[in-house]
Amino acid sequence: MLSAKSLFQEILDNDESFALFCSIAASGESQGGWENARIAALVPESQRALTPKITRHGADEDKHGRIFNALLKKRGLQPVPVPADTDYTMLLERNGIGLAHRRLERDEPLTVQDIVTYLAHSRVTEQRASEQMDLLRKHFADHPDLGRAVRMISDDEDSHLAYCHEELLRFAYAGHGRAIQRTLRECALAEIRVYRDVSLAVMAHMGRILNWSRPRAATLAAGIHAVYAYERLAGWRRMVSLRTPDRRNALGGPATQEPEAA
Q1: Among positive and negative, which fits the CA dihedral 166, 171, 174, 179?
Q2: Can you tell me the distance from the alpha carbon of 258 to that of 152, in angstroms, rounded to the nearest whole number?
Q3: What is the C-alpha to C-alpha distance for residues 7 and 5, in angstroms, rounded to an integer?
Q4: Residues of the chain falling short of pLDDT 50
Q5: What pLDDT score does 1 carry?
Q6: Are residues 26 and 211 in contact, defined by beta-carbon separation less than 8 angstroms?
Q7: Cα 115 vs. chain centroid, distance in angstroms?
Q8: What is the pLDDT of residue 261?
Q9: Strand, coil or helix: 248
């Protein structure tokens, strides 16, 4: 029976597919770490109180990248090149979502609107990350090799999402509500397209590695397209709502340390 658990177990059991999975994940997390570090360095004077939280966000992303690389090392594997069509972070940037790298590379303070854009982009992408890690946590929280890493990353992603809700609500109360909703909608609609395309690309690469049959590959592709159809119709709305999170000041402290042996 084809299920999320059996699919990931198959990827996990093969060294080549596991190396690709971890390399894609580590690359995305490392890019997120760099972006947050640059944003923290360029926060406008009026929003300096956000700097420690943005710094913590970036530190968490860097930590996640190290965890995925440690999982490879534990298996005696090396990172592999990330195919361009699976690079979720860069594909989002090419679609005009978030703050462009060329903007972050300049030593020029960001504007308040830039910070709103960053938070809206993060609110959408952290929703996806939180859901994906929740799925892995559901099936692999007790796995002897992955369990501790999965639990830690999942908890971090939930904290990142709570932080985005809390800070966006603060900006909304300060008069940025319309801009926030407009940006959230644009980000969400672009993200679901990119997520569909990246998912199809990842499954295509995994299928070649694992020698999936054409019917199986077609079934997985159809499932990805069905998820996109739902998200395009109504599912994107979960990414644009704002609520007071149960976790308050979720990024108010130092980053937790990754497991020594992952």
Answers
A1: negative
A2: 8
A3: 5
A4: 261-262
A5: 56
A6: no
A7: 18
A8: 47
A9: coil
pTM over 0.85: yes
- How far apart CA 65 and CA 59 sit, in angstroms, is 10
Tokens coding 220? 């997985």
Q: What is the DSSP-derived secondary structure letter of residue 253?
A: S
Separation CA 89–CA 91 (nearest Å): 6
- List Cα–Cα distances, 98 to 50, 92, 121, 179, 208, in angstroms: 17, 8, 5, 14, 32
Query: CA torsion, points 72, 80, 87, 44, in degrees to nearest 10?
Result: 70
Q: How far apart are CA 48 and CA 66, in angstroms?
A: 28
- Contacts of residue 26, defined as CB under 8 A and 6 or more positions apart, other chains included, come to 64, 65, 66, 68, 69, 72, 79
Question: For residues 145 and 75, what is the distance between their CA atoms, to the nearest angstrom?
Answer: 10
pLDDT attached to residue 129: 97
Task: Report residue 192 CA to chain centroid gap.
Answer: 13
174-185 tens-digit pLDDT: 999 999 999 999
Distance of CA 194 to the CA centre of its chain: 12
Is residue 16 within 8 A of residue 207, CB to CB? The reply is no
Three-class SS of residue 98?
A: coil
Query: What pLDDT score does 15 carry?
Result: 97
pLDDT, tens digit, for every residue of 55-94?
A: 999 999 999 999 999 999 999 999 999 999 999 999 999 9
